[in-house]
Specification:
The longest helix is centred in the first third of the chain and has 18 residues. The strands form three sheets. The chain has an eight-stranded mixed β-sheet, with helices on both faces. The chain has a five-stranded mixed β-sheet with strand order 13-12-14-15-16, with helices on both faces. A three-stranded antiparallel β-sheet has the order 2-4-3. Helix content is 38%, strand content 20%. The chain has two domains: 246 residues, Bira Bifunctional Protein, Domain 2 (BirA Bifunctional Protein, domain 2, 2-Layer Sandwich); 106 residues, 3-Layer(aba) Sandwich (Rossmann fold), CATH 3.40.50.800. It has 16 helices and 16 strands. By secondary structure, the protein is of the alpha+beta class. Helix 1 runs antiparallel to helix 5 and helix 5 runs parallel beside helix 9. The structure holds histidyl-adenosine monophosphate (HAM). The site of histidyl-adenosine monophosphate has 27 residues, from strand 6, strand 10, strand 11 and helix 11.
Length: 436
């Protein structure tokens, strides 16, 4: 048997109903903040990520799906989308359009990580980027937009973790201090930390090994080493959040796994998720456009891990809305070829009318005896069965069986349509839940 590749998975109904709901909520919120959708290719030139995300990061150094194209070029399945969005911003000169560039995206990303709960090799992100301003008010608005999405989808009890990791004016001095300190205590740390101390010392702060924690806690904190401009930026952001009553925790040890970040970084965590508890991550990347050969274009963005978002919704008791047939069409065998069978033709036409009225209709591809047909309608959890047999055809009235209330009505075609107009219960409920 051929199976899906390790770390990838099939998303099936009814789970996909919850995915659709999350995406519908996100799109609706993006719309209200005036974000437009961007769709970038799933593969790009490898050097986009090497330069954008950073050669030394885990993502670029060991997790990318990189392959040689037939003409010898090096291509990579996108491990994230921010580099692609900024490439598109530069390529299409989006700064020439009025106002801030506000873009959102949804789609699959690829990283060859060790699969576990909440961590896959093909996973999905819902993200947004605001490019063209360094104002902390943009950061604050983005965090508000995120809260709207998380709460709109029904997520409760998440925690916003915030940090500022400085900019090219102050980070080198901080890294210097960090290296000096690591020089003194490095020998006591794990092998990974000792390696990182040399290549990418910020990543030491991210170590999860319990024995290392007391030592790491005593290392210099980035938030104590910010330059005046970065400090003011961070304080303004926090003042707006406080004014708004939005809870957050400053976590100076939170460093993110991508090199483009400057100043604000953040994560929203959900404690029901276990080890992989970051539902989303993001931050500022004021130098990314220039690093990719574009103009100065400070930006900030985030990506929600949709797989983890759905998992945390399930942990919070949010279930996929039940989608079931409103009407199961029962057409009784008349012994004719289906295309010529008058019962099938009636059933086919009625199904079209009912669907046009917005109902979910299941029209089975074969005639069945009434008992078998109703049994099948019951298994599919249909609300109503509409019976079309010889009597119905002769009299022009159809039998509508309510499979919940166990009652039946004889209705003409017009009465049937009116009946559903007045009994919008199942349909209306679905629409209220935001399911298109
Ligand atoms: P990231 O932290 O690498 O940031 O990923 C964002 C989110 O994607 C994570 O918090 C997590 O929920 C999800 N995620 C990452 N890797 C996996 C995986 N292997 N399986 C399942 N979910 C995963 C970025 O990607 C940045 N582009 C975010 C950003 C946008 N920064 C600025 N703009």
């Amino acid at each position: 048997m051929i199976r899906a590749i390790k770390g990838t998975r099939d998303l099936l109904p009814p789970d996909t109903e919850l995915w659709n709901r999350v995406e519908a909520v996100a799109r609706a919120v993006f719309r209200t903040y005036n974000y437009g959708e961007i769709r970038t290719p799933v593969f790009e030139e490898t050097q986009l990520f090497a330069r954008g995300v950073g050669e030394e990061t885990d993502i670029v150094s060991k997790e990318m799906y990189t392959f040689e194209d037939r003409d010898g070029g090096s291509l990579t399945l996108r491990p994230e989308a921010t580099a692609s969005v900024v490439r598109a911003y530069i390529q299409h000169r989006l700064w020439e359009r009025p106002g801030l560039t506000r873009l959102y995206y949804m789609g699959p990303m690829f990283r060859r990580e060790r699969p576990q709960k909440g961590r896959y090799r093909q996973f999905y992100q819902i993200g947004a980027e605001a490019i063209g301003s360094e104002s902390p008010l943009v950061d604050a608005e983005m965090l508000q937009m995120l809260a709207d999405i998380l709460e709109g989808a029904g997520l409760k009890q998440y925690e916003l973790r915030l940090n500022s990791i400085g900019d090219p004016a102050c980070r080198p001095a901080y890294l210097e201090r960090l290296r000096a300190e690591l020089g003194k205590v490095g020998e006591q740390l794990c092998g990974d930390c000792r390696r990182r101390a040399a290549t990418n010392p910020l990543r030491v702060l991210d170590c999860k090994i319990p024995a290392d924690q007391p030592i790491i806690e005593r290392l210099p904190r980035v938030t104590d080493c910010l330059c005046a401009a970065c400090r003011e930026h961070f304080e303004t952001l926090q003042a707006v959040l406080r004014q708004r009553g939005m809870a957050y925790t400053v976590v100076p040890r939170m460093v993110r796994g991508l090199d483009y970040y400057t100043r604000t970084t953040f994560e929203f965590v959900h404690h029901g998720l276990g080890a992989q508890n970051a539902v989303l991550g993001g931050g500022r990347y004021d130098g990314l456009s220039e690093a990719l050969g574009g103009p100065k274009a400070p930006g900030i963005g985030f990506s929600i891990g949709a797989d983890r978002f759905v998992l945390s919704l399930e942990e919070s008791g949010v279930t996929p809305p039940a989608v079931r047939p409103d009407v199961y069409m029962v057409w009784l065998p008349a012994g004719e070829a289906p295309a010529a069978d008058p019962a099938f033709r009636q059933a086919d036409e009625m199904a079209r009318l009912l669907r046009a009225a917005g109902l979910v209709v299941e029209l089975p591809p074969e005639a069945r005896k009434i008992g078998r047909a109703l049994e099948q309608a019951g298994k599919l959890n249909a609300r109503y069965a509409l019976i079309i047999g010889e009597n119905e055809l002769r009299e022009g009235r159809y039998q509508l069986k309510d499979l919940e209330q166990r009652e039946a009505r004889q209705l003409s075609r017009q009465e049937l349509l009116e009946f559903f107009e007045n009994h919008k219960d199942t349909k209306a409920q679905r629409h209220e839940e935001g399911i298109p």
